[in-house]
Amino acid sequence: MGLRRFIRRLLRRDEPFGQGFSALDVYSGGDHGRAMKIFTKAIDNPGQVPPEEMPMVYYLRARIHGIGGRIDQAIDDYGKAIELDPAYAGAYSARGNLYFGKGLDELARADFDDAIRYDPDAPAAYHGRGAVCLKNNLLDQAIADFTRAIERHHEGADTYAYRANAYGQKKLWNECIADYDQALAREPGCAEWHYFRGLARELAGAGEAAVADYRKALEIDPGYDAAREAVQRLGVSR
């Protein structure tokens, strides 16, 4: 069932809370307090929602907790969703992201593994597992997972930038530069990525292109000392 249709069904059971509420409110800065009341009431009143829909109720309430910075409560609700539906790949992936943010890499890796086991085409889970691998210096595994994410249309700037980081640590400069190209095509205002593409270009022997990237990083962030030092190192005034 689509998310919007699901929430509309839930709201029809709770008209006092339902007026003017839509699915977008849950995710994009809407009335999260009202949404929390809806989902909590459904959880506290067994039978209001069919049992097969309860995992999504917990999942959505977890999303609201996460938006509000209540990370432990979000983790608990994702866990309840998983207890009710042990094959809920999206809940594993979302909880894995929260574990990763808390520095709990082993728990995050286990959740991403489970998400992929239940949904081998889950791009966000490959991205998340790749991030865990990158943090722990498992570079080949990180590259493989970021590549799988990209092949499954998880083509955000961060995915390319993280894979570029892994390529750079392996001194694969051409691949590193190509991925920073992709990241910057999506988010051209990131000073850090201009700086690191410049560093890869410098190490690949493309000094003029490197200077252009260092200057762009300084244009975006005039306080970027590493970029200023790099320009000076190459003997070029800003």
Question: What features would you highlight for this structure?
Answer:
238 residues; mainly alpha; 15 helices
Fold topology:
Layout: H1 3-12, H2 15-18, H3 23-27, H4 32-44, H5 54-67, H6 71-84, H7 89-101, H8 105-118, H9 123-135, H10 139-151, H11 157-169, H12 173-186, H13 191-203, H14 207-220, H15 225-233
Helix pairs in contact: 4-5, 5-6, 6-7, 7-8, 7-9, 8-9, 9-10, 9-11, 10-11, 11-12, 12-13, 13-14, 14-15
Structural class: mainly alpha
Give the averaged pLDDT, no decimals.
87
**What share of residues is helical?**
over 70%
Number of helices: 15
The end-to-end distance, rounded to whole angstroms, is 57 Å
Unreliable segments (pLDDT under 50, ≥5 consecutive)? 10-28
**Tertiary shape:** elongated
Total strands: the figure is 0
Proportion of residues in extended strands: under 5%
Major β-sheet, in short? none
Describe this structure in words.
By secondary structure, the protein is mainly alpha-helical. The protein has 15 helices and no strands. Helix 5 runs antiparallel to helix 6 and helix 10 packs antiparallel against helix 11.
Outline of the structure:
By secondary structure, the protein is an all-alpha fold.
